[in-house]
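Reading a protein record of the kind used here takes only a little practice. The record below shows the convention in full:
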Amino acid sequence: MSQIRTIGIIMDGNRRFAKEKGLSAFEGHRRGAEKLREVLKWSRAVGVHTVIAYAFSTENLKRNKMEVSFLFKLFRQFLKKEIETLVADKTIFRCVGERKFLPTNLPADINLAEARTKNLGPHTLALLVAYGGRAEILEAAKVFALRHGGNLATATESDFSHCLATAGLPDPDLIIRTGGENRLSNFLPWQSVYSELAFTLTLWPALTREEFTAILREAATRERRFGR
């Protein structure tokens, strides 16, 4: 797994998993949160340092209000329950997204988790919450114009990357999407240009350690040329 240090995960399939099992959609999302905890352990075991997980897109805000409210509640519970584990495992926590869409009590919990873990490492968990890739690029362009508008001729891709909300996070070596869809759905469009991609029919809560490890092992065998 030596080539795979940073992975992005599109955690798709919670509701379909629940439907197949005769469970409520809420229980499907709860199972999905538990799966993320497992995947973090599996990742550390195989040398993955950074996990960037797509938890909640801006498009998800259009879902049923009760479901959206439950998702935010689940995220808050995840933070409160997981913070001590993140500290013990020396994991930096980052949350990236448009916080103006979050319930009023949630940003304080996010800020606390980020503050408590910011000087840790070598591991990082970044959750994308109320995130949209195009919106991130648009906001970065505004920052870029302010910082480099006077000398655009010498500005670089690296300069632009430092204007993104994800600045400081490495680009994913591998992006995994569960649930059977073969698209990125507005996930890290700038950062993913040279990422390896892996799609699986397995619904997110049903992902096993064996399949996860097999995906990483196969991806590590690919020759990455980065356009060269």
Q: What stands out?
A: The mean pLDDT is 94. Helices lie at 14-21, 25-45, 65-88, 106-117, 133-148, 157-161, 209-220. Residues 5 and 48 are 4 Å apart (CA to CA). The longest strand covers residues 123-131.
